[in-house]
């Protein structure tokens, strides 16, 4: 069986992948500064014999594998950047770069991409069309646009033109050995915002001479909570959170200014725009009613990641085929986190998958924790699925494009 061959090839490179993952983990680099990581990826891809393109959004790298037969092009995306935080894992390969840590598994994603490259180049004769491996910087760079957006602007989906995309993320909520996905939204849009409230300062004992921005801000926070409960369809989803309330310098002084910062998460563009409109109205009118002035600075960040139905079906078949029926998980509801893979999904039919690393009766630290780590057996699981999916993709008929 061909699956036996894939399993054997993956087993042969498992230690090789783990070594690369640990080396990348040891020397993490933040968004837009993935210079050594990028160079490492280039070196490995060139040693494997892939066509390599560099310079997408400075550190982005592309490896191209052209199959024996001509055809369409499938893109596989792997993010490379780390988070700016101190590591607290005590791993033997813990970060040597102070204040930077691979706390979201992108070291694993990059190693998975290298493993897929190593296998698919060996299986070139089985590939119909082209495989474009996209090693992306700056996924964590919200709200500055994300590396996916800028790689697309730099032409990463062209020459050869990419017809569909696949992305994945290591996921603690799924058990090790399983992979899951769903049709439609799987990750939320992520929109940060800042509210600046201007009042009139005075001594705390003379409130009648002030316009208190703290009171205005408090009322704005309360009023904003009505948006989800009273303006969003109960069958839709939205999250609105104020995470920072900054104001004042002394206990006995009413300040001149207060700043609020928050985030909105949605899955539907109409709901996304409606929430923004209501925030703006509530912020400005509440402040005006109370004698102050408020300005909203709203950043439309990463859009929601929307999975294409036919691409999900292709992924579902690949997962069940290579891992077994019981190791495919149908995701019931999307995550509220943002993901810049969404920009790829807006351009071409796409599927985004979650690769499990959770274990029963064992604590697993989630992404963005300073103690984050994952079971490295998940690397091989992901490679098997991506290789199988890439080979199945070539068999999709031209008149049955995944759109």
From TrEMBL:
Keywords: Hydrolase, Manganese, Metal-binding. Its cofactor is Mn(2+). InterPro entries: Amidohydrolase (IPR017439), Bact_exopeptidase_dim_dom (IPR036264), Peptidase_M20 (IPR002933), Peptidase_M20_dimer (IPR011650). Mn(2+) binds at residues 104, 106, 140, 169, 368. The Mn(2+) ion enhances activity. It holds the Pfam family M20_dimer. One of its GO terms (biological process) is diaminopimelate biosynthetic process. Coiled coil: none annotated. The keyword Metal-binding applies. The keyword Hydrolase applies. This is Peptidase M20 dimerisation domain-containing protein. It comes from Thermohalobacter berrensis.
């Amino acid at each position: 069986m061909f699956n036996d061959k894939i399993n054997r090839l993956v087993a042969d490179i498992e230690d090789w992948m783990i070594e690369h993952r640990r080396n990348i983990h040891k020397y993490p680099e933040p968004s837009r500064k993935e210079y050594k990581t990028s160079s490492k990826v280039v070196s490995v891809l060139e040693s494997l014999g892939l066509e390599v393109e560099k310079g997408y959004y400075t550190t982005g790298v592309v490896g191209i594998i052209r199959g024996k037969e001509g055809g369409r092009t499938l893109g596989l995306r792997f993010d490379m950047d780390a988070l700016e935080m101190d590591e607290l894992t005590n791993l033997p390969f813990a970060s040597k770069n102070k204040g930077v840590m691979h706390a979201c598994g992108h070291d694993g994603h990059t190693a998975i991409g290298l493993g897929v490259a190593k296998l698919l180049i060996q299986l070139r004769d089985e590939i119909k069309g082209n495989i474009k491996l996209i090693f992306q910087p700056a996924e964590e760079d919200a709200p500055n646009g994300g590396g996916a957006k800028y790689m697309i602007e730099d032409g990463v989906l062209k020459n050869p033109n990419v017809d569909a995309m696949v992305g994945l993320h290591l996921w603690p909520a799924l058990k090790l050995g399983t992979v899951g996905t769903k049709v439609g939204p799987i990750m939320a849009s992520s929109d940060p915002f800042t509210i600046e409230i201007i009042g009139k300062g005075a001594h705390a004992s003379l409130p009648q001479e002030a316009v208190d921005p703290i009171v205005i801000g408090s009322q704005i926070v309360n009023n904003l909570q009505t948006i989800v409960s009273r303006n969003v369809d109960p069958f839709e989803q939205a999250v609105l959170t104020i995470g920072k309330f900054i104001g004042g310098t002394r206990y006995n002084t009413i300040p001149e200014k207060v700043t609020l910062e928050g985030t909105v998460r949605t899955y539907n563009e109409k709901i996304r725009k409606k929430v923004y409109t209501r925030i703006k109205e509530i912020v400005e009118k509440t402040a005006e009613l109370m004698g102050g002035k408020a300005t909203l600075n709203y950043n439309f960040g990463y859009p929601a990641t929307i999975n294409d139905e036919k691409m999900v079906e292709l992924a579902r078949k690949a997962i069940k085929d290579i891992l077994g029926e019981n190791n495919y998980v149908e995701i019931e509801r999307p995550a509220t986190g943002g993901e810049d893979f969404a920009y790829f999904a807006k351009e071409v039919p796409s599927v985004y998958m979650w690769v499990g690393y959770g274990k029963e009766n064992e604590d697993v630290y989630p992404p963005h924790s300073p103690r984050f780590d994952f079971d490295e057996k998940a690397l091989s699981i992901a490679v098997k699925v991506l290789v199988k999916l890439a080979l199945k993709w070539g068999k999709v008929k031209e008149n049955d494009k995944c759109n």
